[in-house]
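Audit log entry. Action: structure prediction of a protein-small molecule complex. Ligand: NAP. The ligand was supplied as SMILES and no pocket hint was given, so placement is left entirely to the predictor. Protonation state taken as written. Sequence taken verbatim from the request; no trimming, no tag removal. Recorded inputs:
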Amino acid sequence: MLCMMKPWVVVCLCACLVCARAELRSPVVLAKNTTSQVVLVTGATGRTGSLLYNALKAQGVDVRGLVRNATKARERLRCNKCDPSEGIFVGDITQPADLTAPMVGVDKLVILTSSYPLQYPNGTWYYAPGGSPKEVDFEGQNNQVIAALKAGAKQALLVSSMGTTEPDSYLDLLGNGHVSFYKLNAEASLMGSGMPFTIIKPSGLVDDSGNQRRLLVGHNDDLVPSQMMTVPRADVARTLLHAVTLEEEHSAGLRFDLSSDPAGPATEDFAALFKEARSWGGQTRPSGRGKHSGARCISFHIASHAFVPWCARCNTEGVYHDATACPLADEECTAKRVERAREADELAGEFHALYDGEDDQRFAR
Ligand SMILES: NC(=O)c1ccc[n+]([C@@H]2O[C@H](COP(=O)([O-])OP(=O)(O)OC[C@H]3O[C@@H](n4cnc5c(N)ncnc54)[C@H](OP(=O)(O)O)[C@@H]3O)[C@@H](O)[C@H]2O)c1
């Protein structure tokens, strides 16, 4: 099945699985235009979130962090009390009430919260209760946008993901979470909110050093996959840093894919990068399909042909993604979705088996 997956998806999946402990390893090169604005980073104890939070702090920006755990914040964000007096707010984005206090007076919101798939030792995938893509990436994100709108924020910046043009992709099916579907819907919600937005859709995230690679921008998953498509979290953080600190006109109204060329040279001019993203000037490939990497590829068929694509696109209310009715009764559709999820989990188990020699611990967060 790896053969059937887009290379960057494989990297993305691997990156999801590795518990990164090197968040601060890659220093972010700072933008020059520091302003007096108040910036709230949610998911601030996350891997990209902590890089951005610390970089904004280092630049003297009045930055706040929304975190779930003050102890983790102390470790990653170098706070002492790790409370509102230091701009650290403990809260859960699925609880709208938790978002009121951190949003007061915020000019820019950077959304770096995300759901996260977990894996049982047998290789099957699941999301923790309350941590599904629907709850976190869609509803939790909408809560943030609504709170930011109420607070009068001027811009919301979101890190989503590449791969949302491919229905029922491997990532989408993990744990039956439909993460790409919900992330795409969350993008649409933000774009329709009336708030100036910047949406960055990275390829597979890695923890390599930032400021080494040439950053590539594109649209609709059309970047040329010359090799495994990855981008360091540190470079995503740099891109966000510049989007936040440059004048709004550079990045507002932009939604683009972000990847990188390890051969460099390192991207320095982010105003030019945003301009390129605005002009849809990235490289394109007509086929819409990338070459797979031969590495670790074992030839077996993805069972997706056995799936029921139209059914998977129905929600639990029996409605298609495009809001038309599903052709099967709800129960039949649900039954098929359950079956489909089981098959997807079995495939996940096979995927897991490919990583022979890998410690199961590595797959736990
Ligand atoms: N992995 C990839 O290859 C890949 C590829 C493309 C795009 N992306 C996307 O890029 C973004 C950044 O990825 P990352 O790996 O840096 O993220 P990450 O380390 O997984 O961080 C996610 C953050 O969200 C927080 N969070 C989750 N649920 C929450 C809730 N209910 N309330 C408050 N906070 C919550 C987590 O809090 P805790 O710190 O308390 O856990 C964590 O700080 C994500 O949107 C991800 O989906 C990833």
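Audit: result stored. Residues 12, 15-16, 43, 45-49, 68-69, 72, 92-94, 112-114, 116, 131, 136, 140, 159, 161, 202, 204-205, 233 surround NAP (CB under 6 Å). Residues 303-363 form one domain.
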